[in-house]
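Exercise 7.
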Amino acid sequence: MENGLIVVKQLPIIEEQLKQVSEEIDKKLNEIDSLICTEDTVKTVKDVRATFNKEFKEWEEKRKEVKSAIIKPYEDFEKTYKECISDKYKNADSTLKNKIDDVENELKKNKRLEVENYFNEYLQSKDIDFVTFEKANINVTLSASMKSLKEQAKDFIDKISDDLMLIETQEHKAEILVEYKQSLNVGQAIEIGRA
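Solution. The predicted structure, written as tokens, is:
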């Protein structure tokens, strides 16, 4: 990126005589400190206070005007920057992200399909017909290797196959099998099936 594309040509120059005004305010504060407030002078003290507050409000208005005058050019710049630079980069990033997502989603879909096909073939080879790929909770990601995904599928099915062999040895195997098909928890199925 080229340097100097955005340059502040002149920093805001604020002409101020605040130190001089501050000295005048200090003089007034000394006068205020010397005022004695009694029943007879309370109206005068109130008038001094009202005058002092009025002056302060005028200064505050002037400060706000200065702030607006300084901020307005920046706000104008920011609006132009957003339209000419920021929005374009953000839109490009979003477009690129969508393109990447489309490809990665397709890759994941194909990877999942391959693992699911393997799962179903292995399930069929073990003669198991009551389990779906979703039950295996295999998290198919782009970073996961096909080997590890297939191992997860195989381990899941092997466990079910082992559980089914255990159920075959049980006295109430029909009842246990019904429970097992719902929970895939052999210990729980045996306990409930015996009851």
